[in-house]
Design a protein that fits this description.
It holds the Pfam family ABC2_membrane_4. It comes from Mesobacillus maritimus. The chain crosses the membrane at residues 18-38, 61-81, 102-124, 136-161, 173-195, 221-243. Keywords: Membrane, Transmembrane, Transmembrane helix. With 249 residues, the protein is mainly alpha-helical. It has one domain. The protein has twelve helices and no strands. Helix 6 crosses helix 12, helix 8 crosses helix 9 and helix 9 (167-189) packs across helix 10 (193-200). It is globular.
């Protein structure tokens, strides 16, 4: 298993799509604060407010959409170019192969998801002269939950990338899915109590509560933590079963 991780990690480090996405997001994180510098009212802005209302809100879209591109090139493209067929014929268990790729891909998704909360926040803090910084507990908590929900969404993306063995189709489907599915689920929740329960306990809804971490306590906090973990395990198992039964050409 260790060799599988090393092989997947090597491929991830060499993946051009990952580094392109990281560079673009980093450039946005470092350049956006320049607009604040030229804003005459910037002195009244607190880092905490900017972190909560702009960085975390913007990161919602980053986490749900940007890793879809990485999944298409890191996972789906290996089917179309024949790499996955060679890997599957190596003698390793397909379940171990899938989870090795899923875990390494999730690490790549985490790297993408932390650019805004860390680099963007750092750049804004300097621009605002560290005025009204978020508390260390709130900041660390949102970072931890960001990681958990990133791997939850990554497990779904890995499943879709396995279903669609063409990178273009995989990326197109996933972008559309993650843009509209939560809205569809929300509409269905108003029609049926079953869908309402599914929506209330889904990562799509709870993910939005990260920004309100300072007001979440008790059972709600447990739900906020356990839901992405259960989602990652469930979709990981589902994806490994699909990969085990999949005919690789």
């Amino acid at each position: 298993m260790d060799n599988l991780f090393k092989a997947e990690w090597f491929k991830l480090k060499k993946d051009r799509s990952l580094w392109t996405l990281i560079i673009i997001l980093t450039a946005v994180s470092l350049s956006y604060p320049l607009l604040i510098v030229f804003d005459e009212g910037a002195g009244a802005i607190k880092v905490m407010d900017f972190y909560r209302n702009t960085i975390l809100e913007g990161n919602n879209y980053v986490i749900r959409l940007v890793p879809c591109i990485l999944a298409g090139f890191f996972i789906s493209s290996e089917y179309s170019i024949g790499t996955m067929k060679s890997i599957a014929a190596s003698g390793n268990s397909r379940v171990r192969l899938y989870f090795a790729k899923l875990i390494v891909y999730s690490i790549g998704a985490i790297l993408i998801s932390l650019i805004f909360p860390i680099i963007f926040t750092g750049a804004v803090s300097v621009s605002l002269q560290f005025n009204g910084m978020p508390g260390i507990g709130y900041f660390a908590g949102t970072i931890g939950l960001t990681i958990l929900y990133t791997i939850a969404f990554a497990s779904m993306m890995a499943l879709f990338a396995t279903i669609f063995t063409d990178s273009g189709k995989a990326i197109g489907f996933m972008l559309i899915f993650f843009i509209i599915f939560d809205s569809i689920l929300y509409l269905l929740s108003g029609v049926s109590p079953v869908f309402e329960t599914i929506f209330n306990y889904s990562v799509f809804k709870l993910f939005l509560d990260i920004v309100n971490l300072d007001t979440v306590h008790g059972a709600e906090m447990i739900k906020l933590i356990l839901t992405p973990v259960v989602t990652f395990v469930a979709f990981g198992i589902l994806g490994s079963i699909l990969f085990h039964k999949k005919e690789i050409k």
